């Protein structure tokens, strides 16, 4: 089966960074992952590797092979974390990992070709639906609503990513916090404007660079923002 070309490439001129944040080392990103998300990078690498093993056994006539890989990744993450204080549920039908201690929820999607490249904007490989849009809206106006969950995206490499040009690929993935999106003609969206990008590589010698802004502070309220931001509710 062929794979959909990443439509997001048409938006490649977008700025992917929040200039008020900071670049952090791989070691610092791993520390954030453990403290805020409650697991180590290897958990995700294990899930991707198992999903790839299943994918490699499928034939070209299996029209759901790409979807099955996404489902396998979510399943293998959930099975590894089921004993932790992490819930795996369906929020309005969308599979979500919820970390209640940190008020974080994670949705899983394959990325565009910019995965692991801090100088290019990350987004999904294919357009997303209304539930992803709602979750990003909560990120945008989180401190102006009664909702506390931050939404993060786990971006894993699609099979067309350059890492799979190697026989034994060194895998990469990102946990990123989207703050906006671009709406397509059909109403679907592409996540964009990620103010945090935590990057991880299974190649221990490959130092990857991550980008970190502050986690949301529950003491922040509407009056903490500039007037221009408060009036942005009609920007779409």
In a nutshell, what does this entry contain?
The chain is α+β, with helices and mostly antiparallel strands. Helices cover 25% and strands 24% of the residues. It has helices at 26-37, 41-56, 65-81, 130-140, 227-230, and strands at 22-24, 86-91, 94-99, 104-110, 150-156, 172-183, 189-201, 210-212.
Q: What would you note in describing this structure?
A:
There is one protein chain. It contains 5 helices and 8 strands; from the N terminus they run βαααβββαββββα. Helix content is 25%, strand content 24%. The chain has helices spanning 26-37, 41-56, 65-81, 130-140, 227-230, and strands spanning 22-24, 86-91, 94-99, 104-110, 150-156, 172-183, 189-201, 210-212. The chain has a 6-stranded mixed β-sheet with strand order 2-3-4-5-6-7, sandwiched between helices. A two-stranded antiparallel sheet has the order 1-8. With 236 residues, it is of the alpha+beta class.
Assign a percent range to the helix content: 25-40%
What's the overall geometry?
globular
Report the radius of gyration as a whole number of Å. Answer: 17 Å
Total count of helical runs of at least 4 residues: 5
Quote the distance from N terminus to C terminus: 35 Å
Q: Please, what is the average pLDDT?
A: 80
Structural class: alpha+beta
What are the SSEs and their pairings?
Layout: E1 22-24, H1 26-37, H2 41-56, H3 65-81, E2 86-91, E3 94-99, E4 104-110, H4 130-140, E5 150-156, E6 172-183, E7 189-201, E8 210-212, H5 227-230
Parallel strand pairs: 4-5
Antiparallel strand pairs: 1-8, 2-3, 3-4, 5-6, 6-7
Helix pairs in contact: 2-3
């Amino acid at each position: 089966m062929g794979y959909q070309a990443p439509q997001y490439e048409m938006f490649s001129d977008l700025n992917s960074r929040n200039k008020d944040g900071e670049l952090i080392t791989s070691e610092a990103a791993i520390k954030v992952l453990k403290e805020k998300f409650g697991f180590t990078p290897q958990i995700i690498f294990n899930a991707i590797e198992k999903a790839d093993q299943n994918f490699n056994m499928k034939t070209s006539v299996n029209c759901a092979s790409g979807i099955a890989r996404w489902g396998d990744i979510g399943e293998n993450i959930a099975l590894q974390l089921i004993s932790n204080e992490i819930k795996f549920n369906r929020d309005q039908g969308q599979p979500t990992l919820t970390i209640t201690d940190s008020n974080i929820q994670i949705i899983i999607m394959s990325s565009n070709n910019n995965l692991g490249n801090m100088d290019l904007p990350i987004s999904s490989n294919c357009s997303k639906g209304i539930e992803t849009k709602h979750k990003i809206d909560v990120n945008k106006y989180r401190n102006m609503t009664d909702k506390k969950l931050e939404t993060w995206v786990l971006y894993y490499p699609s099979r067309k990513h350059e890492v799979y040009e190697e026989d034994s690929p060194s895998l990469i993935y990102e946990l990123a916090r989207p703050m906006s999106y671009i709406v397509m003609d059909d109403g679907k969206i592409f996540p964009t404007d990620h103010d945090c990008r935590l990057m991880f590589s299974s190649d221990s010698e490959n130092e990857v660079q991550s980008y970190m802004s502050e986690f949301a502070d529950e003491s922040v309220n509407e009056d903490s923002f500039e007037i221009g931001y408060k009036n942005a509710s009609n920007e779409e």
